[in-house]
Amino acid sequence: MPEKVTISLIKADVGSLCGHHVVHPKQLEVAREKLEEAKKNGLIIDYYVFNCGDDLELLMTHTKGEGHPDIHGLAWHTFKEVTEKVSKPLKLYAAGQDLLVETFSGNVKGMGPGVAEMEITERPSEPIIVFAADKTEPGAWNFPLYKIFASPDNTAGLVIDPQMHEGFIFRVMDVIEGKVVDLSCPEELYTLIALLGTPGRYVVERIFRKTDKAIAAVASTSRLNLIAGKYVGKDDPVLIVRAQHGFPAVGEVLAPFAFPHLVAGWMRGSHNGPLMPVSLKDARCTFFDGPPRVVALGFQIANGYLIGLHGSEPADLFSDPAFDRARMVALEIADYMRRMGEFMPARLGPEELEYTTLPKILDKLKDRFKHV
Ligand code: F6R
Ligand code: MG
Ligand code: MG
Fold first, then answer.
1. What share of the chain is helix, strand, coil (3-state, %, to 5)?
2. Longest dimension (CA), the chain
3. 363 in active site
4. How far is CA 40 from the centre of its chain?
5. Which mutation among 55, 97, 268, 360 tests ligand 1's pocket best, with the greatest number of atoms within 8 A of CB?
6. Which is the closest atom of ligand 1 to the Cα of 134?
């Protein structure tokens, strides 16, 4: 059994079927072939390939640690191969969209793909939940992560479990300045909320348990438009959370998603909409390119292997009818928000639209404005 295991979740939108809608089965197939080969070669221990809407998600386990060039290279070359072998020949929509540079330089961070990685010492039993969202941004995790790791109204363990009672440390990133700050909760709870309430700028990067500094959660934080300097779609974030036995229980991790909170994204990355929890088969955005969706996949890690229900096929946690009501509420909210048309706050504010094509439209009016 390896002493330490790294879980790497690397994702990219490299084109999709019928607009920005859904990954093509052939793309999944090519990605699987590539990761199967890496498993046979011993580079990775295990993998699971899936999609959330138009995003291709590569979940991998290995012993190389975080940010390793071989693992990042594998992900990069997989995305490249899917683009060349499938997206381009089938003329899928926005082929290779998130591969912002030509050549790989050791780490996919800053090159387009989103990354969440954690190195763990595997516990005697290691349940994890992998989240992936489409048509939204990393700040979409702010609200649920605050609930899961800092709100006693959500997480009974914060009150009852001695290992969690001391609280958690949130590492928050300012994505505009490229800086991080560690906030210790519950003492700095109000400061945490002051930051996380601005999800377009401050996002949770990772969370540690206070008693032993064990890693509890890690999220992707890339903001593509800040890298590319122009609108290239939303970042459709991913998140890995460890559960149970001194971490929040699976049910405590999932509970906040029963409330479909408003997130930025949806049509043209320019609207606020409810985050709808869905099963893998329903992870495809249709209505006004949405509403934004999230899937939750449950695994046990055993000696680095991804144990699911059938082989590495995970528990599809939001397929539970217990989330049906959340879906209905999300659709109500989606309908309500759409009736607002292009008026704020249904449409995002000007600072969020800076990198979209809207400034080009407004530019045309520049000379027609007269002083009063
Ligand atoms: C949002 C998204 C879609 C597109 C929209 C327009 O993240 O991917 O809502 O922004 O479908 O796409 P284009 O400009 O490619 O026609
Ligand atoms: Mg797309
Ligand atoms: Mg997407």
1. 30, 30, 40
2. 75
3. no
4. 28
5. 268
6. 7
Question: Do 11 and 113 contact (CB within 8 A), yes or no?
Answer: yes
CA nearest to 252, candidates 294, 215, 296: 296
- Select which of 11, 64, 135, 234 is catalytic: 234
Residues 6+ apart with CB under 8 A from 82: 14, 27, 30, 31, 34, 56
Return the H-helix or E-strand segment holding 143.
Answer: helix 142-150
Spatial contact of 204 and 145, defined as CB atoms under 8 Å apart: yes
Task: Record the pTM.
Answer: 0.97
Flag the least confident range among 30-44, 107-121, 345-359: 345-359
- Specify whether the CB–CB gap between 331 and 291 falls below 8 A: yes
pLDDT digits (tens, 9 = 90+) for 51-72: 999 999 999 999 999 999 999 9
* Cβ partners under 8 Å of residue 37, min gap 6: none
